[in-house]
Design brief:
- The longest helix has 21 residues.
- The protein starts with 8 loop residues before the first helix and ends in a 9-residue tail after the last helix.
- Strand 2, helix 4 and strand 3 form a beta-alpha-beta unit.
- Strands 1-3-2-4-6-5-10-11-9-7-8 form an 11-stranded mixed β-sheet, with helices on both faces.
- It has a single domain, classed as Amidase signature (AS) enzymes, CATH 3.90.1300.
- It has about 500 residues and is α/β, with parallel strands linked by helices.
């Protein structure tokens, strides 16, 4: 049996179910690894001590001959904007520093029923607003491959935790690239499912028409199992699709024969670091040798994705974050002389600079004098972006390209330049606007300052075709095996 920290989701579940190890042994080994290494990275905000009781209960069920479920004893880390009942959900913000979730996210409940154990909550950019996990009120997360660089964001803590072998899987949320970009920077697999594939109930809202919960893992098979368990209709979320969820594991090994893989010209132009383009081209060439047909496709409105995204997302954020006013829950200023001052002071004290910036931008875009010029026009361009992908999928089964335009950048490099930070999502945001599924999978490394820095290949499918993403990702693993490499021993 492998070292516990090197074991994946399926391997741990099978070992616990068969009695080769116990859920408690797995959990204690990973907690010890976190306590020994995470001080250097800051992936976790807190560990859940109740997980130890969950592990003991699961081991008792196994000993009694009861089926512990397909995720038996698998420790999963949770981004701290997803509710686990009675646990803190801070969203990386002072305004929710002491808030305990009164209910549980549907995705969490389904994973729990399948035998998963929640090891702890991971760091994030405040309210998932950022691309570097430097906007957290509780300090930044550092990249396990180079602790002077960002792990990406906003789900940087979850990506770093999986990369550092602190847990075999973690959950994140993706509004404009917040799963795929950190997956690329940390050298792991990160999936954003189709909008509506996984219930958003219990995910703290940033952009309600954009947000999706998805997994980080080190293998396609592990991501397929977790996604299948989380996915499906939910009466608590009217946007959760009623489309049937296939058995992704049944088709994951079918290979590349007969697949048409499109390479987006706009994703491979001179704006993209030449080293990144080279790694992506190497993956494309390997797919061709393995039997896939490679075609070029056009996504002509890609250049409008970032301005469109930052109008739609900030407008929705302005509306969603209006609830944090110091009245119902969260931080409340106690020195204000009247209710208006209390609203203002509570929000000024509770929100960080980036959250304030996005609320202001969104409020402006929704204002009476600006709505038609900004928000309404952004919705029209959103339709054009969606149409680009519809036309591309007439020529291919999946679209390929880099996940990010550069390798991981240094901590502090972009934090004072919002535009430069926003452009980190230039290759990911269009999927959220179109509601499509996409994943970043490890595509090798580039050398910089004596360090090996990960590069991610983005694999994009048509709506509800996550099965094809898992199939391509699994084939890529067998061709290259980059996900087996670890930044720390």
């Amino acid at each position: 049996m492998s070292e516990i920290h090197d074991m994946g989701v399926i391997e741990i579940a099978e070992a616990v179910r068969s009695g080769k190890t116990t859920a408690l042994e797995v959990l204690e080994a990973l907690r010890a690894r976190i306590q020994g290494h995470d001080r250097a990275f800051g992936a976790f905000l807190r560990l859940d001590d109740e997980a130890l009781d969950q592990a003991r209960a699961l081991d008792a069920a196994v000993a009694a001959g009861r089926d512990p479920g397909p995720l038996a004893g698998v420790p999963i880390a949770i981004k701290d904007n997803i509710h686990v009942a009675e646990q803190l959900t801070t969203c990386g913000s002072r305004i929710l520093e002491d808030f305990r979730a009164p209910f549980e996210a549907t995705a969490i409940g389904r994973l729990r029923a399948a035998g998963a154990i929640f090891i702890g909550k991971t760091n994030l950019d405040e309210f998932a607003m950022g691309s570097s996990t430097e906007n957290s009120a509780f300090g930044p997360t550092r990249n396990p491959w180079d602790d002077g660089r960002t792990p990406g964001g906003s789900s940087g803590g979850s990506a770093a935790a999986v990369a550092a072998r602190f847990c075999p899987a973690a959950l994140g949320s993706d509004t404009g690239g917040s799963i795929r970009q950190p997956a690329s920077f940390c050298g792991v697999l990160g999936l954003k499912p189709t909008y509506g594939r996984v219930s958003r109930y219990g995910l703290v809202a940033f952009g309600s028409s954009l947000d999706q919960i998805g997994p980080f893992t080190r293998s396609a098979a592990d991501a397929a199992r977790i996604t299948r368990i989380m996915a499906g209709a939910d009466p608590l979320d009217s946007t959760a699709a009623t489309v049937a969820v296939p058995d992704y594991e049944a088709t994951i090994g079918e290979g590349l024969e007969g697949l048409r893989l499109g390479v987006a010209r706009e994703f491979m132009d001179d704006r993209i670091d030449a080293r990144v383009r080279q790694r992506i081209q190497e993956s494309v060439d390997a797919f061709a040798r393995a039997g896939a047909e490679i075609v070029e496709v056009d996504l002509p409105h890609t250049r409008y994705a970032i301005p469109t995204y930052y109008i739609v997302a900030t407008s929705e954020a302005s509306s969603n974050l209006a609830r944090y006013d110091g009245v119902g829950y969260g931080h409340r200023n106690t020195e204000a002389k009247d209710i208006l001052a209390m609203f203002m002071k509570s929000r000024m004290e509770g929100f960080g600079d980036e959250v304030k910036r996005r609320i202001i931008l969104g409020t402006y875009c929704l204002s009476a004098g600006s709505y038609d010029a900004f928000y309404d026009k952004a919705l029209r361009v959103r339709s054009l972006l969606r149409r680009d992908f519809e036309q591309a999928f007439e020529r291919c089964d999946l679209v390929l390209g880099p996940t990010t335009p550069t390798p991981p950048f240094r901590l502090g490099e972009k934090v004072d330049d919002p535009i430069a930070m926003y452009l980190a999502d230039i290759l990911t945001a269009s999927l959220n606007l179109a509601g499509l599924p996409g994943a970043s999978i490890p595509a090798g490394f580039v050398e910089e300052d004596g360090r090996r820095l990960p590069v991610g290949l983005q694999v994009i499918a048509n709506r509800f075709r996550e099965d094809l993403i898992f199939r391509v990702a699994n084939a890529h693993e067998h061709l290259h095996g980059f996900a087996k490499e670890s930044p720390i021993s």
